[in-house]
């Protein structure tokens, strides 16, 4: 028998090393170009990390997906809650607050109503589990909110699939199941405007029926205006072959607001018409006003805000924008004149008055000139005066170290409700108990 040569011994080693080198090269190239199995491995890793961090949430033990470090301080005060800094400067009226219920014994989501002294006077339980049997409430985020003069409310959910109107006790008046998200705004003509996926929809307030829709990719990005289409198609990606399919990447626009121009504000915006819709596309830092029939953009502005939310028409003919400004630790409220395109800053976070939410967030310019701000990712609400000084602040406290994410605070006048402060047997009992605690 012939004795194996050195080359015979080395051949398996060389083969194994070659396979290893090829594997490293392929893995590197696959990660660059997104070839198999890089996307699958990335998804598996993200899923593992997510489950590791949030398994307590997903089995209903602790809402870890909704807990955040408190805003306004580096060292949380266990006694934090509502603080009136300049009560004489407060707007007055009522403040609605939507988000996670800080009472673990109640429904997972709630909308609360506070009076001008900061006392809770009513609470709407949001019974998501009764409305949707497919998704657990703890894996959804109450986001869009509207309130009605009869004491009812309407809400939508991110990562959920419910748009519903509830009476003052939280009993459903009607419900729709679909991918509604982010925002709800009354148009003054009997409808609410919201997003369903990437489609703007008008929903009848009384029945929940969809009465009109406008598709972002079809009518706005892919409509008859080629210049507009080219502008929005900046978010398309091409395959590596020149004859490959042109396609959109994942969530290229991330629409997060659709606000109709109401009749009472239309006179301040002569370049627009009643019913035109202002949209916010977060991923391309775009705020635009579109024709609701054709999708034609009548006006648009790309920045200087970054990953913005909640653009609002204002009575003086300007538009204010919640500039999340992620990565800077400082969010801002910006104001732009759509005719001159002059941009200013109404308020910015500072060392004296910290304000930062890297995502989500709402704002409201109040009649007295103050700003009502939702610092969503720090679980804090604040009203500031025109000089940027705190008027009051409220932490939505979960425990000594954490707040809960809060998605919106909204001021309404004292005489908003037709029959006074909403109430029902359960709601009155809950509110009284909360007030006494």
From TrEMBL:
Keyword terms, alphabetized: Membrane, Transferase, Transmembrane, Transmembrane helix
An example Gene Ontology molecular-function term: transferase activity
Disordered: region residues: 62-82
Lineage top rank: taxon: Bacteria
Taxon lineage: Bacteria, Pseudomonadati, Pseudomonadota, Alphaproteobacteria, Rhodobacterales
Classification via InterPro entries: Arylsulfate_ST, ASST-like
Protein name, UniProt field: Arylsulfotransferase (ASST)
Natural source organism: Roseivivax sediminis
Transmembrane segments: 12-35
